[in-house]
Specification:
This protein is mainly α. Strands 1-2 form a two-stranded antiparallel sheet. Strands 3-4 form a two-stranded antiparallel sheet. A hairpin with a 5-residue loop joins β1 and β2. α1 packs antiparallel against α3 and α3 packs across α5. The protein is globular, with a radius of gyration of 23 Å.
Length: 265
């Protein structure tokens, strides 16, 4: 079941193929995430109790102030959901556990997960967790054709693998970028920058990056100008006070969007 493939046609009429993440990889990611959540919550509770009471004795004697107890419960509840909601949205559908397992959440149309979808799928964990230990969610993932739990069905999301084939041999484009002496770190982009680009933008940039290897100087300059007018205004605030050419900026942007949009099965 872990190796099932899913073909998706995006709203931009681009056909994509994904490898669905099954019960095993999703469960392992959940274990990692909940271990981190538990440890963080435990540390937060101890620090708050120490700050308010200067002693841990009340915790073990059951004499915590009711207001403090309410605050602790609210923090535990909010952190539990905020962890999944904000990481999945701002980190391209990944949590720490998903990142380590090489999986991510995306919209069923192939786009990055939206903030609303992240909220919906994660608040429905309350139902997927019933009656305990994610029994409902596990049953749904196991039997659903696309390995969806209730939260995924409602939010219109799927969980896919993003492991890429690694080769010791550089591609012609990688060699060209290396010759230019530019690195991904030369362009610092925040999550809100990446959210401005869609699948159509990525396909345009991907096509541009591979085509310029076979173009003459004049033809490449014309294409670079056209693509730059479409894409570079979205990262203009990161391009100030620099001597880099538009071609270099586009290739740097390519390196960033490649991590967001390229899936190799």
């Amino acid at each position: 079941m872990e190796q099932e493939q899913l073909k998706v046609k995006t709203p931009e009429y681009v056909s994509l193929q994904f490898q669905l993440a099954g019960l095993g990889s999703r469960s392992a990611a959940q274990i990692i995430d909940y271990t981190l959540i538990f440890l963080t919550q435990l540390l937060t509770i101890f620090l708050l109790i120490l700050a308010f009471t200067n002693s841990f004795s009340n915790l073990f004697s059951g004499q915590l102030d009711s207001i403090l107890l309410v605050i602790l419960l609210i923090i535990i509840y909010l952190f539990h959901f905020a962890y999944f909601i904000f990481l999945e949205y701002f980190w391209g559908g990944r949590t720490i556990g998903k990142r380590l397992l090489g999986i991510r959440v995306i919209q069923e149309n192939g786009h990055n997960i939206t903030f609303l979808s992240s909220i919906i799928r994660n608040f429905l964990r309350l139902i997927d967790m019933l009656p305990s230990a994610y029994v409902v969610g596990i049953i749904m993932i196991f039997f659903h054709s696309k390995h969806k739990r209730l939260g995924d069905i409602t939010a219109g999301t799927i969980v896919v693998h993003e492991r890429r084939k690694k080769s010791l041999k550089q591609s012609p484009l990688e060699k060209y970028i290396h010759q230019l002496g530019i690195q991904k770190e030369d362009l610092q982009l925040e999550p809100y920058h990446l959210k401005q680009f869609n699948q159509k933008d990525w396909r345009l940039l991907q096509t541009y990056a591979h085509r310029i290897l076979h173009m003459g100087i004049q033809e490449k300059g014309t294409l670079t100008t056209k693509v730059s007018e479409i894409l570079l205004p979205k990262i203009a605030d990161q391009m100030e006070n620099s001597t880099k050419s538009n071609e270099e900026w586009l290739l740097l942007l390519y390196l960033h969007l490649k991590d967001e949009w390229e899936y190799v099965l």
